[in-house]
Amino acid sequence: MKSAVRFASVFALSAASVWANALTPEMARTSPPEALPAGAQISALEVQPQKVALSGKYEAAQLVITARLTSGDAVDVTRLAKLHVDGGVAEVSASGQVTPLHNGSGTVLIEIAGKSVSAPVLVADIVEAQAVDFIRDVNPVMTKLGCNAGTCHGAKDGKYGFKLSLRGYDPIYDVRSLKDDLAGRRLNTASPDDSLMLLKATAGVPHEGGQRTPIGSKYYEMLRSWIADGAKLDLKAPRVTKIEVFPRDPVVQQVGARQQVRIVATYTDGKMRDVTAEAFVESGNGDVAKTDGGGLIDTLRRGEAPLLARYEGNYVATTLTVMGDRSGFAWQQPETWSRIDELVASKWERMKIQPSDLCSDADFLRRVYLDLTGLPPSAEEVRAFIAETSPPREKRNAVIDKLIGSPEFIEHWTNKWSDMLQVNSQFLGAEGAKTFRGWIRQQVAANKPYDQFVREILTATGSTKDNPAASYWKILREPAEAMENTTHLFLATRFNCNKCHDHPFERWTQDQYYHLGAYFTQVQLTADPASGKAVIAGTAVEKARPIYEIVKDAPTGDMIHLRTNKVAAPTFPYETKLETALPEKSTRREQLAAWMTSADNRFFAASYVNRLWGYLTGAGIIEPLDDIRAGNPPTNPELLEYLKTEFISHGFDVRHVLRLICQSRTYQLSVGTNKWNEDDKINYSHAMARRLPAEVLYDAVLKVTGAPTRLPGGSGAQQLPDSALDLPSGFLANLGRPARESACECERSSDLRLGSVMALLSGPAVADAIGDDKNGLAKLVATQPDDAKLADEIFTRVLNRPATSTEIKKTLETWATIDPENTTLLAEWQAKEKEQAPIIAKMEAERVTAIDAAKKELARYETEIAPKVAAAEKKRLEEIAKADAALKAYEKDKLAVAQAKFEETVPIARTYTGWQLLDPTDMKSTNNISLTKQADGSIKAGAQTAQNADYTINVDTKLAGITGILLEVLPSADEPGFGPGRASGNFVLTEFTVKASEYQMNAVNEVDVASAMADFSQEKFDIKGAIDGKKGDPNNGWAIAPQVGVPHYAVFTLKKPLGDAKGSRLRFEMNMPRTGMFTIAHFRLWATTSEQPLTIGLPLAVVDALKKPAPTRTKEDVAALTSYWKEADPDLRKLTLTLGKNQMPLPIDPGVLDRRESVAKAELPIKLDAKLVQLRQDSTQSNAQMTNKRLTAAQDLTWALVNNAAFLFNH
Amino acid sequence: MLRIPGQPGRDLCDNHLGITRRDLIRVGGSAILGCTLGSLLSLKARAASEAAAIKGGPGWGKAKSVVMVYLQGGPSHLDLWDPKENVPDKIRSPFTNIKTKIPGINFTEILPKLAQVNDKFTMIRSMSYTPNGLFNHTAAIYQIMTGYTTDKVSPSGQLEPPSPKDYPNFGSNIIRLKPPTEPMLPFVVLPRPLQESNVVGKGGTAGFLGKGFDPYTLFPDGDDLDMTKMNRIKVDDLNLRPDVYAQRLKRRASLRQSIEATMPDIDKAVENYHLDEYYGKALDLITSGKARDAFAIDREDDKLRDRYGRNTFGQSLLLARRLVEAGTRVVEVIWPKVANSDNHSWDMHTGLTSRLKNQAGPMFDQGFSAFIEDMEQRGLLDETLVVTLGEFGRSPEKGLSTSGNVNSADGRDHWPYCYTACVAGAGIKKGYVHGESDATGSSPKSDPVHPTELLATIYHAFGIDPDTIVYNHLNQPRELVKAKPNTAFFA
Fold first, then answer.
1. Helical (H) or strand (E) element with B369
2. Mutation site, B2, B11, B14, B286, interface A, largest A CB count within 10 A
3. What is the phi-psi region of residue A113: left when phi exceeds 0, alpha when psi lies from -120 to 50, beta otherwise?
4. Of A526, A1076, B205, B427, which is least surrounded by CB within 10 A?
5. CA distance A644 to A611
């Protein structure tokens, strides 16, 4: 055997061997030296391939040498054997890679431990200028070097300005990127060594990715030749059609031993090549086996690891088994009850696994109840089942038959499907979610065949209200989204990564994505008028949608391919046979449903039985349950095939499959393990503990404690119609209930983390159920006088099995500590009280002193300022007297004159308009400004907290045919400048909006205002600005300066009469955005049904009086006029306002306010020691609990059991 | 009120990649997946590269906690800490300049207290980025909080509500990569969510990392203008119920354990769930009262509470300090007002003078200066990184519209091209000013710092390489943030 060192230094052509070694020095060092198993005797030696044929100087072949031992085991000895090529045509490395030297033939000789084997070697086609093809040679090298990886230049945006297609799926793009971008600097065909591509790859210039290959290596030479040849792209070059891996399903006996695999590619021209060096081989179970990306696999522990090999967009998987030390294992055929048991057992035998025993009756009963109905059995059911004397299989089958199809079964499986179909009010509204769940429940109750169920969903048409199945299309509105979800949900395959590029870990291509997507493009949604005004609120991006929509198939609608920008025709990624041909004019969705639900569809039935198996055993035959992939092979393909066949041949009967699984002995094995199966997690040799799903957990807590539900609607968790509903503490979400935002099984989480443990340990969901004084525990304590029997009964309720004597003993021991603990606690409390007493007394004394001092200071200060206050009060009274006198004088001397003048000059336009006061139903302002209704029907704004405000006034009125609205703004004595606005009396009403709807409903429809007039408008702030639709503009709207301090009116005439006898809701929105408090402080709203044109008008009595000549007026006429004028006279108003202002109480001295606050602060209770407060509280509780010690004890035990794995898990 | 996020919702629907995310974290470099071959070699090669020189460079791994004081709304740099002189009236701040502890560096009169402590932190006066066509708050918030921009936006520049596909908030990344070592809430956000209009909490979740890494949110009831609401914090989940006092809970826990011991088969079957470890931690967290005590701000001295300011912002900062003391890794104090609102929000399109003078300004000056002083006095600044900024600054020219909003003559619009941020603690230089804005505060004159660079610096301070790869919901590899840390801030 020649050393690797020699041919590295001598032959440039053999650099590939150096390269292969250079990549893995760390690996070589850290792995222990390989050796044959101790005492192994080789009986025969095999080599693969049996013939080595190499074409051209860049090809290489990987040998795999297997030794058969006398023990019957096979061992990979590739790196242990002595290797040598006779004839000088090729070299072989220590790792078994054969590389060509010269054209001709020779033999590779293999020898180990006295045994030998050989294979002929034929080398041909080596020429001086070896042609290098981009597709066949360059792309695989770039892929192997990592250039086009997802984290490097294959990333979505490339890296550092250089982008390649992900893993080289698009050679045209890649060659362009290399050749044309960056002014062609990446390739230099005249001087290939100066190409940036090579300089970067060899780190000749700084490269973030480091050195990928050294100068002179085989890969370097290949890239260099391609560049030197002009960097051509031959699109007709043969492509890889498939790859194979050898040996298939290898078994490694010893943990730590290594296994070499070979990868062979077949091309479109029929040629086959060994591509092991450039292929990638990855382990699907890093705990069992790992690779460095190449074909040499390290084993880490006993188990099975799927290996996925990929090369140029082709994939092949095989399963590596690491047997490990099984000495002493002797296979004993276990009892089998069914075909399932036989298929599972044959895998055990192969894997050298001895299964656990059958589980106990109690374990079985709990398991099957939880699995099939989502609820544990009752204590009575447990006792009856254990007492039942018929043979185990018989009585267990009877329970299975009883549970399948029971009402609880229907709720449980309805909930499961509601997850998968995303029954969520976010998409459907609360009503729609309820309706859709109802439909699902009907299907589950009727045991609708699965294929039919899916077809009904996929082809559903009509309103989501009448045909709730159509909700699927309301939830998944976009064709791409619907396609990705549908393939995921019903085929358990993932079509999403291939949206932007060929799937990097799968065979699905980008083309297939769009062709399949085309089946989803002709779904049309229109609003169902039955929705009325009910909408599902949208977001900033998405519009609000009607609650019900009508789904139908439109004749048009296409899918545009992302890369080609062309219409993608509807074709399926693989063919299936249809039982019955579709009618000529079937819709795309009908074609899709027929294809998908066909018995011949390789994923449809298989994916669903895999889910069912996984739900019932805790691990799918394919895991994750909804991820069927080449690199994720089934752990027991025969079992999967059997279940699938049973499912199909029984007309897609879900209950049949459930029954088959539950009746198998495999399902009924114990959770306990033995030496030969304790590390098995995928072969069902023992039951696996599965954490109860969040809803099941809560429902189970309710059932075992006998407490009422606290969920909205008073239902159990599994009956909730909608994932938006939860306990106030968010218990269900916290325990991992899916949000129903996707169909992924991964949405449900069954972990236990700090947050979920805290919810169980101290959260209200569990505590409320245990502490509820009307729950089953209270009754139990009252009716069962014997402590040991009480404990046993609680065990049977919570864990669904009787307690053992040890458990009862331990429980009673704990219960016995309640008394002494109480005594200790009380003692501790008393000690603390004693310790704190002097401190408290001191603090109390200080508090009293402080209060006294503060009060004294207040009194002193009040005395001090008393003269000042008295003087101010005196002055105030004088001012009041003065104002009062002025008012009286005016009334006596001038009022009548002014009134007479008014009567003479009152404009004819101001006749009766029939304004009726509007009584607000509610009033609201932004910025927390209060609005209060006054006795006179006006509205007054409270303290100003902000620079501006918007008011909203709702009014319910029975007025019919409203023609106009009057806004009256009023002065007040307490406003600066007497109002009516707050900016020195002025305001800017930027917009006045009227909305209307039915009586006492939310007013949403805007009412058209035809015109607006005001008694006065400030220059540039005409009333018309208040109805021009421009909200938010501080420089536009109605203002009244300089006429502040007096009332003003604005009349808004409506375009169309509004309202009828049934009444209507009016909503007035007053937009006042101008900063500087340009808001209205005091106002009143009126409406009229008078004929237009409208005026501000006068009261009817006044108009009537004015119509008569003065002498003919009655006493009533005169009174009406006088009383009206008393309100209207502007001078009188000013005097009244002045009087009102003077009458306002004097503000309290700030010094007094401060001191009052000090008193209040001093009066606050003293801060007690936190520990003392706690002890007081705890002792009180503890003492109270002593009055019903047995209930306290029962609650403690229930808590301890609920928080136990035996309750939290199905086992 | 206090939501303890439960499950670490599995972040990936496809976990079939050859390398687990844990492996990637352990190796700690980028360019791993797909470059698997020779990754160890390439890591060695990188040791000499610039990126690796930063890693382990100044400030690397100094921070054990971070407090981000997030001034949502976008404070005006020109009217606070980067005032300009000799500029036209329409640019000039209405406020006078005052001297600060650092000679030659002025603030406006709005920040008199902060001017007395600015020798304790670094100020970056050259924060700058060019938005991706968007000027609104949420897009900017999302960028600083996650390091990424998002493409799904409404015409007004608003984003969709939070989605499980979002990039994670940096706090979620930190607690995932550096989980706290003691039982304490790892990541807390208070006193209100990030919000613009009706888009609430965008950029504030763990996104595709899964709910297990969501922050604990502590949003007391009450209006934003209710300044006493921090007195009403309720932490029910952390409290013992009165009827299950500590002694009884311990009795229950010991009964639980003794029964567990009778079922070894089940115990073994669930060993991977680490039930006892979690029950131990949870029991400790509740009975020790550590978390509950951290929230009891009423145990603070009245004078100190006054010093922080008796308002939502001040008391939130005080709580942030208490949380850091108790072992919380990441605290985000969100300015207690909807980003695009009036009154004491920072979004001052109008009424800037009075709003800064009477509302936001004094509240910030008092609270933040007290926080810096208090943190320093307690030695907490040694291992706590403090970062303060908003989503942008404000337009140098008043009354000008840059975002489509209307601005009064006394208002400034959004301005991402130049603004100011503050960083302190965990080895950050004291009394240092990084970068400089031009004569009008319109763009950086030197050393521009992109917000993602600041984010990268936060990761760096925790000893996390910003290049670390996380996998999104489609299992696509993504860097924590595509930026390099800026080590010039570190002493």
1. helix B361-377
2. B14
3. left
4. A526
5. 11
Longest dimension (CA), chain A: 147
User: pLDDT tens digits for A174-231?
Assistant: 999 998 877 778 888 888 998 989 999 998 888 888 889 998 899 999 999 999 999 9
Contact B34 A688 (CB under 8 A): no
Cα angle for residues A942, B232, B173 (degrees, 5° grid): 115
Q: Which two tokens stand for residue A915?
A: 């304004």
Inter-CA distances, A393 with A364, A438, A681, B144, Å: 11, 36, 25, 63
Distance in angstroms (rounded) separating the CA atoms of residues A424 and A415? 12
Burial of A707 (0-12, 13-18, 19+ CB in 10 A): buried
Opening angle at CA B28, ends B26 and B29, nearest 5: 145
- Are residues A49 and A255 in contact, defined by beta-carbon separation less than 8 angstroms? no
Q: Is A1022 helix (H, G, I), strand (E, B) or coil?
A: coil
Give chain A positions within 8 Å (CB) of B49.
Answer: 206, 208
Measured distance CA(A955)–CA(A950) in Å, rounded = 17
- In this structure, what token pair is assigned to residue B293? 């005590």
Contact B68, B333 (CB under 8 A): yes
Q: What share of residues in chain A are helix, strand, coil (percent, to 5)?
A: 40, 20, 40
Instruction: State ipTM.
Output: 0.76
What is the distance between the alpha carbons of residues A464 and A734, in angstroms, rounded to a whole number? 31
Beta strands in A913-1037 (DSSP E): 916-917, 920-925, 931-933, 939-941, 949-957, 962-969, 991-998, 1005-1006, 1009-1014
Residue B404: pLDDT over 80 = no
B249·A1033 Cβ contact <8 A = no
Q: Count CB neighbours of A334 within 10 A.
A: 19
For chain B, count helices (H), then strands (E): 14, 18
- B20 in A contact zone (CB under 8 Å): yes
In whole angstroms, what separates CA A258 from the centre of its chain? 42
Cis peptide before A980 (omega within 30 of 0): yes
pLDDT digits (tens, 9 = 90+) for A1060-1118: 878 889 999 999 988 888 999 999 999 998 887 788 888 778 888 888 888 888 998 88
Q: A1080 — phi, psi (to 5°)?
A: -85, 130
Interchain proximity A146–B258, CB inside 8 Å: no
Tokens of B198: 């009706």
State mean pLDDT over A309-331.
92
State whether B278 and A747 contact (CB < 8 Å).
Answer: no
